[in-house]
Structures are given as structure tokens and as C-alpha cells.
Amino acid sequence: MYNFSFYNPVKIIFGKNTISKLSKEIPKNSKIMIIYGGGSIKKNGVYQQVIDALSGIEFVEFAGIEANPHYETCLKCVEKIKAKNVDFLLAVGGGSVIDAVKFIAAATFFENDPWKIMNEEANIKKALPFGSILTLPATASEMNKGAVITKAATHEKLAFHSDKVYPKFSILDPTTTFTLPKIQIANGIIDTFVHVTEQYLTTCENAKIQDYFAESILKVLIEEGLKVFDDLENYDIRANLMWASTWGLNGWIAQGQSEDWSTHMIGHELTAIHGIDHAQTLAIILPGVMEIMKNDKKEKIIQMGKNVFGIIEKDDETFIKKTISAVDNFFQSLGIATHLSDYNVPDETIEIIVKRLKDRNWILGEKQNITPEVVKEILKIRK
Ligand code: NZQ
Ligand code: ZN
User: Fold this and answer.
1) By Cβ atoms counted within 10 A, which residue in 57, 98, 207, 273 is the most buried?
2) For 278-305, how does the pLDDT look when each residue is reduced to its tens digit (9 = 90+)?
3) 182-380: which CATH architecture?
């Protein structure tokens, strides 16, 4: 296990009817802005619960954060924050709304060109404080310091991370997820699955707590993922899925381990170019990364096959093949297609992605050996 130091200050408030506790978490005399997406919270009653919980607190609103939030929309929100002297933000929604709020919080005080925030070396000195109310378990944005923003004008989708953008608190009420469309439930399960594999299917560091924890998250996703569609208002299933997602990317399972993230980086390009849902891009790419990188990831793929899918094989090659098929089949069993052709992605996109990665000098993977040429191989076998 590598050395590590770890910090995660997010207060989690989990369970039924917890939105009613909101006002206790907001600093006294704050002027807050509620930020949300396209209106799902108005249809499912979450908006009303928030308004009720804020009784007596001064607030303004900003609606219309898109899925895969746009930089351009975030800047409009920053203008309104400045005009209205807002000093506390409240994100209500899925990962897109929380990510947008992280960017907005940082951009409010950023003195340079705000797109420079998306450069990992950006020096973010200050951000507005904010809390979140999560309605879609997937990204773990509610308990991490990362955000992914899309510049619509150039079809670029980039991530940034900063200790300044941890939420002050996040409220997770699993009943808010009952209204999710089936596709978003499947997306959330797959996104979480791949967050775990990015931190687990790497090299063997003998970090057993992290490994077993990662395996337990994967097992919960498989167990509950296969049941959730038959029992959409089962609280325990939703609670387990919600908490699994938070743990998938709250930082803990990555400690002392090497991390990959190539599936995400390649997937972000597919979303940026074709608008394919984030999790669907991951379902396409992960089996390709496992196949092309199987020599580097051999030990962990076999460990996952055994401990997560219960596969037993003497021959390593067959073991790996069966594990990759098990992952691919699991994604498909959730109703998510796993090949580029299923989404009508033309061959030219492969060249465009390879060129983009070359232009950014990106080399991916836990061993920093997934070059743009290797990415091409990964994409080619997922046609
Ligand atoms: O916009 P509204 O009307 O709220 O509708 C949303 C949206 O259309 C809807 N929805 C959310 N909660 C609902 C609901 N519909 C009914 N009932 C509910 N309870 O679901 C749709 C998708 O929402 P979105 O927030 O886009 O989904 P998700 O949470 O999957 O977030 C995806 C974004 O997160 C980024 C992705 O790249 C993508 O931009 N990621 C962020 C990460 C992070 N911050 O650490 C890591 C991830 O790997 C990921 O990259
Ligand atoms: Zn993700």
C-alpha cells in the first residue's frame, strides 16, 4: 500500500425525510441561491420540500442547469450571484447540478478567464460555500471535490478538482430517487461501477481494506441493480444504491492505490462529441480497456472475476475472458448497449478522439502507457 494522507470534510445527512433538516445546516443570515436543473425537482416534490424547509430564509433561484452542464450557463449564474449578493449556494439535483455549482462557486471569485479553472493547475484560492441535495445517485459529486464541465461552443468536456469545492453538507434521501427514469437508474449503477473499477482494476498494491471495500460496492451494485427495476419503490434497494454511489467516488477506496481513469477520459470525448450519456460511454469503453490492457491488469481482473462474479477457472486467459464478458453482460442486463455502433458513432470519431488526446499530450492509465494509439485500439474493438 502506498503512503497517503486523506481529508474529506463533507457532512452527510442520510435517510427518509432528511430534507426537512436543511435550515439547520445553512449559516445564519445567509442569502442563498437554489440552483437546479430542467425541472425534475418540481415534478417529484423535492422542490416543495426544499422551499418548506427554507421557511424564513432569504433565497433566490437559478434553474436550467443542463445534463453535462454547460460552462456558458454557469457563467450566467455567476452574473446573477454577483448581482444579487448571494453568499451561499444550494445544489438540488444530480451530478450535473452539483458539478455546475462547484464550478460556479469557484468562478465567482476567480480573477482570470474562468475556463482556466478547468486546467488542473489553476490556482483556485476561494469559492462560495454550498450544500447539496442529491436526487440521482451516480457521480458521488455530493462527497468529492471534482466537477466536469462542458464548453458547448467547442464541444470540450473537462474535469477539475479543488479542496475549495467540497460541499459543506449533502442531504441524501433515497426516496427522492423513486422518480428516476429507468435509464437514469441504470446510468447511475454503471457510473458507480466504473468509478470503482478505475480505482481497483489497476496494479496490485495489496491494499486489502480498499480492495475488499471496492469489491463490496461492486457486489451491492450487481445485487441491487438486478432487483431495482422490479421493485421501484423499495426503500432499502434505493438506499443501498445511493450509499454505494457515494462510496464509489468519495476518495476512500483510492487511498494507497494506483488509479486509472482512462475509461472516463475516453468516455468524456464521446459525450462531448456525440452527447451520449456519461454512463453509456463508460459501458462502451470499460470492456475495451480491460481487453487491451489485460496484461497490465491481469491480477486485478482475475481477483474481480473471482471475488465479485464468482468465476473459477484454471487458465488465466479464460478467466480474464469470462470476467470481461460478465462485466459487459451486466451492463447489457441493465438495458445499456455497449458498442459504438449501437449509438451510431461513425468511424471518423475514433480519429477525432485520438487527435484530441494527442493535441493535449494525454497519456492515460495507472502505468501511464495508454497512449492515443492504444486508445485507438480500445475504440476499434468496441465498434
Ligand atoms: O435536469 P433535471 O430536470 O433535474 O433532470 C435530471 C437529468 O435530466 C434527471 N433527474 C435527476 N434526478 C431525478 C431526475 N429525474 C427524475 N427524478 C429524479 N430524482 O436525470 C437527468 C440526468 O441528471 P444528471 O445530473 O446529468 O446525471 P448524473 O448524476 O449522472 O450526472 C452526470 C454528470 O456528472 C459528471 C458527468 O460527466 C456528467 O456531466 N460526472 C461527475 C463526477 C464528479 N463530480 O465526481 C464524476 C463522474 O465520473 C462524472 O464524470
Ligand atoms: Zn463517472
Assistant:
1) 98
2) 999 999 999 999 999 999 999 999 999 9
3) Up-down Bundle (1.20)
